[in-house]
Structure formats: C-alpha cells, structure tokens
C-alpha cells in the first residue's frame, strides 16, 4: 500500500495510518452532494462514500500507538470528534471531516515498525 509522507515544520512522518487518516478526512470533507459522496450504496450496500471515509479514518487512527503523548491526545480527540459526528447530517459530517483533516495535519507520529 502506497502512502504519502507528511511534513510539518522540521518533523516528517511516513506513518501509514496517519497518512491514510489525513487522506480520507480530506475526501470526507467534500461538500454534501458533490462527487456522489452521499449517494446511497456508493461504497457498497447501505454505505455511502462519506460513511466509508469515517470508517477508514477511525480504523486507521485507532491503529496509531507510536505517537508522542501530545500527538496521541490530539489523535484521541479527533477519534471522539469523528465518533460523535459519524451519524449526523451530511453538512455536519463534512464540517467535522474538514476539522479533523486540518487538525491531523499538525500531528506527528513516527513510522510504525
């Protein structure tokens, strides 16, 4: 699985779980109604593309266990934020995904060995 390296100041991470969470929160922040993100069954039976973004972001963030404590606290807060908005209306879900995306770009986690 290919993943991108994210750079923040002098820190660089190629933690694949963080990189994937950053990518899918960007995707999940798409405007409601755009690109079919909220079309029923667009990611499988009973699942929209935006639903899928939530599932993947939460799954990947929960796999991160090598982050420094301050970063881990931020990751845990993003997890709670996503969990609380997962079943909200699409406008709120898009806003929360955008906020999660912005927040995660300031998080650093070393590669998982």
Describe this structure in words.
With 113 residues, this protein is mainly alpha-helical. The chain has a single domain (15-106), classed as Four Helix Bundle (Hemerythrin (Met), subunit A). It has helices at residues 16-28, 49-62, 69-85, 90-104, and strands at 6-8, 11-13. A hairpin with a 2-residue loop joins strand 1 (6-8) and strand 2 (11-13). The radius of gyration is 14 Å and the shape is elongated. Mean pLDDT is 88; it is low at 1-11. Residues 1-20, 25-45 are annotated as: Disordered.
- Rg of Cα set: 14 Å
**Helical percentage:** 40-55%
User: Poorly predicted ranges (pLDDT <50, ≥5 residues)?
Assistant: 1-11
Distance between the termini: 15 Å
| Arithmetic mean of pLDDT | 88
The helix/strand order is: EEHHHH
Q: Indicate the proportion of strand residues.
A: 5-15%
Q: What kind of sheet is the major sheet?
A: 2 strands, antiparallel
What strand order characterises the main sheet? 1-2
Quickly give the CATH architecture. Up-down Bundle
Secondary-structure blueprint:
Layout: E1 6-8, E2 11-13, H1 16-28, H2 49-62, H3 69-85, H4 90-104
Antiparallel strand pairs: 1-2
Describe what is shown at a glance.
The chain is mainly alpha-helical and 113 residues long. Helix content is 52%, strand content 5%. β1 and β2 form a beta hairpin.
Features:
113 residues; mainly alpha; Four Helix Bundle (Hemerythrin (Met), subunit A); two-stranded antiparallel sheet; 4 helices; 52% helix; 5% strand; elongated
């Amino acid at each position: 699985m290919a993943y991108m390296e994210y750079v923040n100041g002098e820190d660089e991470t190629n933690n694949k779980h963080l990189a994937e969470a950053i990518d899918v929160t960007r995707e999940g922040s798409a405007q409601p109604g755009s690109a079919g993100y909220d079309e029923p069954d667009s990611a499988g039976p009973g699942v929209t593309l935006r639903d899928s973004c939530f599932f993947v972001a939460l799954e990947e963030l929960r796999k991160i266990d090598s982050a420094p404590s301050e970063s881990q606290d931020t990751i845990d807060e993003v997890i709670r934020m996503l969990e609380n908005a997962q079943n909200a209306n699409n406008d709120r879900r898009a806003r929360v995904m955008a906020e999660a995306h912005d927040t995660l770009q300031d998080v650093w986690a070393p590669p998982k060995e």
